Amino acid sequence: MTSEITLFVNPTAGRGRGAHAAQPAARAFRDAGFSVRTVVGEDADDALRRAREAVDGGTGALVAVGGDGMINLALQAVAGTRTPLGIVAVGTGNDFARALGLPIREPEAAGRLAAEALKAATTRAVDLGRIGDRLFGTVLACGFDSRVNDRGNRMRWPAGRFKYDLAMVAELAAFKPFPFRIRLDDGPVQEVGATLIAVGNGTSYGGGMRITPGALVDDGLFDITVVGDCSRATLLKVFPRVYKGTHVDHPKVTVYRAAKITVEAAGITGYADGEPLGPLPLTAECVPQAVRILAR
Protein backbone atom coordinates (compact mmCIF):
# COMPACT_ATOMS: atom_id res chain seq x y z
CA MET A 1 0.00 0.00 0.00
CA THR A 2 1.37 3.43 -0.91
CA SER A 3 1.83 5.95 1.89
CA GLU A 4 0.28 8.75 -0.17
CA ILE A 5 -3.42 9.55 0.01
CA THR A 6 -5.43 11.99 -2.07
CA LEU A 7 -7.73 14.57 -0.53
CA PHE A 8 -10.57 15.27 -2.97
CA VAL A 9 -11.86 18.67 -1.89
CA ASN A 10 -14.93 20.75 -2.64
CA PRO A 11 -13.95 24.19 -1.28
CA THR A 12 -17.54 25.51 -1.52
CA ALA A 13 -19.22 22.67 0.42
CA GLY A 14 -21.26 23.77 3.42
CA ARG A 15 -20.81 27.49 2.57
CA GLY A 16 -17.03 27.25 2.66
CA ARG A 17 -16.62 24.51 5.28
CA GLY A 18 -14.96 22.29 2.67
CA ALA A 19 -11.91 24.54 2.32
CA HIS A 20 -11.48 24.88 6.09
CA ALA A 21 -12.07 21.16 6.69
CA ALA A 22 -9.28 20.06 4.36
CA GLN A 23 -6.55 21.29 6.75
CA PRO A 24 -7.49 19.31 9.90
CA ALA A 25 -8.28 16.25 7.77
CA ALA A 26 -4.87 16.45 6.09
CA ARG A 27 -3.19 16.94 9.46
CA ALA A 28 -4.81 13.76 10.81
CA PHE A 29 -3.39 11.75 7.90
CA ARG A 30 0.08 13.30 8.23
CA ASP A 31 0.09 12.59 11.96
CA ALA A 32 -0.62 8.95 11.07
CA GLY A 33 2.42 8.85 8.77
CA PHE A 34 0.78 9.42 5.37
CA SER A 35 1.74 11.98 2.77
CA VAL A 36 -1.15 14.01 1.42
CA ARG A 37 -1.90 15.27 -2.06
CA THR A 38 -4.88 17.57 -2.62
CA VAL A 39 -7.07 17.58 -5.71
CA VAL A 40 -9.47 20.47 -6.44
CA GLY A 41 -11.21 20.55 -9.81
CA GLU A 42 -12.29 23.62 -11.75
CA ASP A 43 -15.74 22.08 -12.15
CA ALA A 44 -17.42 18.70 -11.58
CA ASP A 45 -16.09 17.12 -14.79
CA ASP A 46 -12.56 18.33 -14.14
CA ALA A 47 -12.71 17.20 -10.51
CA LEU A 48 -13.85 13.71 -11.51
CA ARG A 49 -11.10 13.46 -14.14
CA ARG A 50 -8.47 14.39 -11.56
CA ALA A 51 -9.88 11.93 -9.01
CA ARG A 52 -9.79 9.12 -11.56
CA GLU A 53 -6.20 10.00 -12.43
CA ALA A 54 -5.28 9.73 -8.75
CA VAL A 55 -6.96 6.33 -8.47
CA ASP A 56 -5.34 5.08 -11.68
CA GLY A 57 -2.01 6.38 -10.37
CA GLY A 58 -2.20 4.10 -7.34
CA THR A 59 -3.13 6.47 -4.51
CA GLY A 60 -3.52 4.67 -1.19
CA ALA A 61 -6.98 6.16 -0.68
CA LEU A 62 -9.27 8.82 -2.08
CA VAL A 63 -10.68 10.96 0.72
CA ALA A 64 -13.69 13.09 -0.23
CA VAL A 65 -14.00 16.37 1.70
CA GLY A 66 -17.39 17.97 1.14
CA GLY A 67 -21.05 17.06 0.96
CA ASP A 68 -23.07 14.36 -0.72
CA GLY A 69 -22.44 15.83 -4.17
CA MET A 70 -18.68 15.60 -3.71
CA ILE A 71 -18.95 12.11 -2.29
CA ASN A 72 -21.08 11.16 -5.29
CA LEU A 73 -18.24 12.26 -7.59
CA ALA A 74 -15.74 10.29 -5.53
CA LEU A 75 -17.92 7.17 -5.81
CA GLN A 76 -17.69 7.38 -9.61
CA ALA A 77 -13.89 7.33 -9.31
CA VAL A 78 -13.37 4.50 -6.81
CA ALA A 79 -16.27 2.08 -7.38
CA GLY A 80 -15.09 -1.24 -8.75
CA THR A 81 -11.45 -0.53 -7.88
CA ARG A 82 -9.29 -1.61 -4.94
CA THR A 83 -8.89 2.01 -3.80
CA PRO A 84 -10.76 2.68 -0.55
CA LEU A 85 -12.82 5.83 0.00
CA GLY A 86 -12.50 8.03 3.05
CA ILE A 87 -15.29 10.47 3.89
CA VAL A 88 -14.93 13.84 5.59
CA ALA A 89 -18.54 15.01 5.55
CA VAL A 90 -18.83 18.80 5.85
CA GLY A 91 -21.66 19.59 3.44
CA THR A 92 -25.28 20.55 4.00
CA GLY A 93 -26.90 17.11 3.86
CA ASN A 94 -24.17 14.52 4.61
CA ASP A 95 -26.63 11.66 4.25
CA PHE A 96 -24.15 9.05 2.98
CA ALA A 97 -21.92 9.60 6.02
CA ARG A 98 -25.02 9.47 8.22
CA ALA A 99 -26.01 6.07 6.77
CA LEU A 100 -22.51 4.77 7.56
CA GLY A 101 -22.35 6.19 11.08
CA LEU A 102 -19.36 8.41 10.23
CA PRO A 103 -18.59 11.79 11.84
CA ILE A 104 -20.49 14.76 10.42
CA ARG A 105 -18.98 18.26 10.34
CA GLU A 106 -16.08 17.02 12.48
CA PRO A 107 -13.24 17.03 9.93
CA GLU A 108 -10.44 16.21 12.35
CA ALA A 109 -12.34 13.26 13.85
CA ALA A 110 -13.36 12.04 10.38
CA GLY A 111 -9.80 12.32 9.09
CA ARG A 112 -8.42 10.52 12.12
CA LEU A 113 -10.96 7.69 11.80
CA ALA A 114 -10.16 7.26 8.09
CA ALA A 115 -6.41 7.36 8.72
CA GLU A 116 -6.64 4.76 11.49
CA ALA A 117 -8.78 2.52 9.27
CA LEU A 118 -6.31 2.82 6.40
CA LYS A 119 -3.36 2.05 8.66
CA ALA A 120 -5.15 -1.02 10.02
CA ALA A 121 -6.43 -2.01 6.54
CA THR A 122 -9.98 -1.91 7.91
CA THR A 123 -12.65 -1.20 5.33
CA ARG A 124 -16.37 -1.74 5.00
CA ALA A 125 -17.75 -2.99 1.68
CA VAL A 126 -21.02 -1.26 0.85
CA ASP A 127 -23.56 -1.35 -1.96
CA LEU A 128 -24.28 1.41 -4.43
CA GLY A 129 -27.15 2.12 -6.78
CA ARG A 130 -26.46 2.31 -10.50
CA ILE A 131 -28.51 4.17 -13.10
CA GLY A 132 -26.95 3.82 -16.52
CA ASP A 133 -23.30 4.70 -15.97
CA ARG A 134 -23.96 6.77 -12.83
CA LEU A 135 -23.68 5.49 -9.27
CA PHE A 136 -25.35 6.77 -6.12
CA GLY A 137 -24.98 6.08 -2.43
CA THR A 138 -28.14 7.38 -0.77
CA VAL A 139 -31.56 7.83 -2.38
CA LEU A 140 -33.11 8.14 -5.84
CA ALA A 141 -36.00 10.61 -5.46
CA CYS A 142 -38.91 10.88 -7.89
CA GLY A 143 -42.10 12.89 -7.50
CA PHE A 144 -43.05 15.71 -5.15
CA ASP A 145 -39.57 15.91 -3.63
CA SER A 146 -37.84 16.05 -7.00
CA ARG A 147 -40.29 18.72 -8.19
CA VAL A 148 -39.29 20.78 -5.13
CA ASN A 149 -35.64 20.33 -6.16
CA ASP A 150 -36.46 21.40 -9.73
CA ARG A 151 -38.17 24.55 -8.53
CA GLY A 152 -35.49 25.36 -5.95
CA ASN A 153 -32.72 24.97 -8.52
CA ARG A 154 -34.48 27.49 -10.78
CA MET A 155 -34.72 30.09 -8.01
CA ARG A 156 -31.96 32.70 -7.82
CA TRP A 157 -33.15 34.04 -4.47
CA PRO A 158 -32.92 33.43 -1.57
CA ALA A 159 -29.65 31.55 -1.04
CA GLY A 160 -29.17 28.35 0.92
CA ARG A 161 -31.78 25.90 2.16
CA PHE A 162 -34.45 28.55 2.67
CA LYS A 163 -35.13 28.67 -1.05
CA TYR A 164 -36.05 24.96 -0.96
CA ASP A 165 -38.50 25.69 1.87
CA LEU A 166 -40.10 28.31 -0.38
CA ALA A 167 -40.05 25.89 -3.29
CA MET A 168 -41.88 23.32 -1.15
CA VAL A 169 -44.59 25.84 -0.30
CA ALA A 170 -44.99 26.68 -3.98
CA GLU A 171 -45.19 23.01 -4.98
CA LEU A 172 -47.77 22.35 -2.26
CA ALA A 173 -49.95 25.09 -3.74
CA ALA A 174 -49.93 23.25 -7.09
CA PHE A 175 -49.91 19.78 -5.51
CA LYS A 176 -51.41 16.73 -7.14
CA PRO A 177 -50.33 13.06 -7.15
CA PHE A 178 -48.63 11.61 -10.21
CA PRO A 179 -49.47 8.50 -12.26
CA PHE A 180 -46.41 6.24 -12.01
CA ARG A 181 -45.51 2.93 -13.62
CA ILE A 182 -43.03 0.83 -11.67
CA ARG A 183 -41.43 -2.55 -12.20
CA LEU A 184 -39.68 -4.34 -9.34
CA ASP A 185 -36.93 -6.77 -10.33
CA ASP A 186 -38.36 -8.84 -13.23
CA GLY A 187 -41.96 -8.64 -12.02
CA PRO A 188 -44.96 -7.14 -13.80
CA VAL A 189 -45.39 -3.43 -14.43
CA GLN A 190 -47.58 -1.82 -11.76
CA GLU A 191 -49.53 1.39 -12.28
CA VAL A 192 -49.70 3.44 -9.10
CA GLY A 193 -50.91 6.91 -8.23
CA ALA A 194 -48.26 8.30 -5.92
CA THR A 195 -47.02 11.49 -4.35
CA LEU A 196 -43.41 10.34 -4.43
CA ILE A 197 -41.27 7.26 -4.86
CA ALA A 198 -37.92 7.04 -3.07
CA VAL A 199 -35.41 4.29 -3.85
CA GLY A 200 -33.05 3.98 -0.91
CA ASN A 201 -29.62 2.44 -0.75
CA GLY A 202 -29.12 4.60 2.35
CA THR A 203 -31.72 5.70 4.85
CA SER A 204 -32.05 9.43 4.30
CA TYR A 205 -31.87 12.44 2.04
CA GLY A 206 -32.16 16.19 2.52
CA GLY A 207 -29.97 16.22 5.62
CA GLY A 208 -31.57 13.54 7.76
CA MET A 209 -35.06 13.00 6.31
CA ARG A 210 -35.36 9.24 6.88
CA ILE A 211 -37.41 8.52 3.78
CA THR A 212 -36.26 4.86 3.60
CA PRO A 213 -35.57 4.20 7.30
CA GLY A 214 -35.11 0.44 6.98
CA ALA A 215 -32.53 0.56 4.20
CA LEU A 216 -29.17 -1.15 4.75
CA VAL A 217 -26.11 -0.26 2.70
CA ASP A 218 -24.82 -3.82 2.59
CA ASP A 219 -27.83 -6.12 2.02
CA GLY A 220 -27.85 -6.12 -1.80
CA LEU A 221 -31.34 -4.58 -1.91
CA PHE A 222 -33.04 -1.21 -2.15
CA ASP A 223 -35.76 -0.13 0.24
CA ILE A 224 -38.43 1.58 -1.86
CA THR A 225 -40.89 3.95 -0.20
CA VAL A 226 -44.05 4.75 -2.13
CA VAL A 227 -46.19 7.54 -0.70
CA GLY A 228 -49.54 6.89 -2.31
CA ASP A 229 -52.27 9.00 -3.84
CA CYS A 230 -53.07 11.34 -0.95
CA SER A 231 -54.51 14.79 -0.38
CA ARG A 232 -52.53 17.91 0.38
CA ALA A 233 -53.77 17.76 3.97
CA THR A 234 -52.60 14.15 4.36
CA LEU A 235 -49.20 14.98 2.87
CA LEU A 236 -48.77 17.84 5.31
CA LYS A 237 -49.64 15.47 8.15
CA VAL A 238 -47.41 12.62 7.00
CA PHE A 239 -44.35 14.50 5.72
CA PRO A 240 -43.02 15.78 9.08
CA ARG A 241 -42.88 12.18 10.30
CA VAL A 242 -40.13 11.49 7.76
CA TYR A 243 -37.51 12.91 10.13
CA LYS A 244 -38.09 10.00 12.51
CA GLY A 245 -38.92 7.48 9.79
CA THR A 246 -42.36 6.80 11.26
CA HIS A 247 -44.15 7.83 8.06
CA VAL A 248 -43.79 4.23 6.83
CA ASP A 249 -46.49 3.20 9.33
CA HIS A 250 -49.10 5.38 7.61
CA PRO A 251 -51.68 3.46 5.51
CA LYS A 252 -50.88 5.62 2.47
CA VAL A 253 -47.23 4.50 2.54
CA THR A 254 -45.98 1.20 1.11
CA VAL A 255 -42.43 -0.16 1.38
CA TYR A 256 -40.97 -2.64 -1.09
CA ARG A 257 -37.56 -4.30 -1.28
CA ALA A 258 -35.95 -5.11 -4.59
CA ALA A 259 -32.55 -5.27 -6.27
CA LYS A 260 -33.81 -3.45 -9.36
CA ILE A 261 -36.57 -0.97 -10.13
CA THR A 262 -37.77 0.90 -13.18
CA VAL A 263 -39.75 4.09 -12.48
CA GLU A 264 -41.72 5.90 -15.16
CA ALA A 265 -43.84 9.06 -15.08
CA ALA A 266 -44.27 12.05 -17.36
CA GLY A 267 -42.72 15.37 -16.37
CA ILE A 268 -40.69 14.03 -13.43
CA THR A 269 -36.93 14.39 -12.97
CA GLY A 270 -35.00 11.82 -10.97
CA TYR A 271 -32.48 13.01 -8.37
CA ALA A 272 -29.88 10.77 -6.74
CA ASP A 273 -27.59 11.97 -3.94
CA GLY A 274 -29.27 15.33 -4.53
CA GLU A 275 -27.97 15.51 -8.11
CA PRO A 276 -30.30 15.61 -11.15
CA LEU A 277 -30.11 12.52 -13.37
CA GLY A 278 -32.64 13.51 -16.00
CA PRO A 279 -36.27 12.73 -16.75
CA LEU A 280 -37.99 9.43 -16.02
CA PRO A 281 -38.07 6.60 -16.97
CA LEU A 282 -35.02 5.50 -15.03
CA THR A 283 -33.87 2.03 -14.05
CA ALA A 284 -31.86 1.64 -10.84
CA GLU A 285 -29.94 -1.51 -9.94
CA CYS A 286 -28.28 -2.32 -6.63
CA VAL A 287 -24.59 -3.14 -7.04
CA PRO A 288 -23.50 -5.26 -4.05
CA GLN A 289 -20.19 -4.41 -2.33
CA ALA A 290 -19.38 -1.85 -4.99
CA VAL A 291 -17.01 0.29 -2.90
CA ARG A 292 -14.77 -0.05 0.15
CA ILE A 293 -15.21 2.66 2.80
CA LEU A 294 -12.58 3.55 5.39
CA ALA A 295 -14.53 2.83 8.56
CA ARG A 296 -14.19 0.94 11.80
From TrEMBL:
Source taxon at top rank: Bacteria
Which keywords does this Swiss-Prot/TrEMBL entry list? Answer: ATP-binding, Kinase, Lipid biosynthesis, Lipid metabolism, Magnesium, Metal-binding, Nucleotide-binding, Phospholipid biosynthesis, Phospholipid metabolism, Transferase
**Family annotation (InterPro entries):** ATP-NAD_kinase_N, Diacylglycerol/lipid_kinase, Diacylglycerol_kinase_cat_dom, Lipid_Phosphate_FormReg, NAD/diacylglycerol_kinase_sf, YegS/DAGK_C
Instruction: List, in alphabetical order, the Gene Ontology terms for molecular function in this entry.
Output: ATP binding; ATP-dependent diacylglycerol kinase activity; metal ion binding
Which cofactor(s) are needed, names only?
A: Mg(2+)
**What does the entry give for GO biological process?**
phospholipid biosynthetic process
Give the UniProt entry's GO cellular component terms.
Answer: plasma membrane
One matching Pfam family: DAGK_cat
> Locate the DAGKc domain: which residues?
1-135
Question: In which family does this protein belong, per the annotation?
Answer: Belongs to the diacylglycerol/lipid kinase family.
Query: What name is this protein filed under?
Result: Diacylglycerol kinase (ATP)
Q: Origin organism of this chain? A: Streptomyces indicus
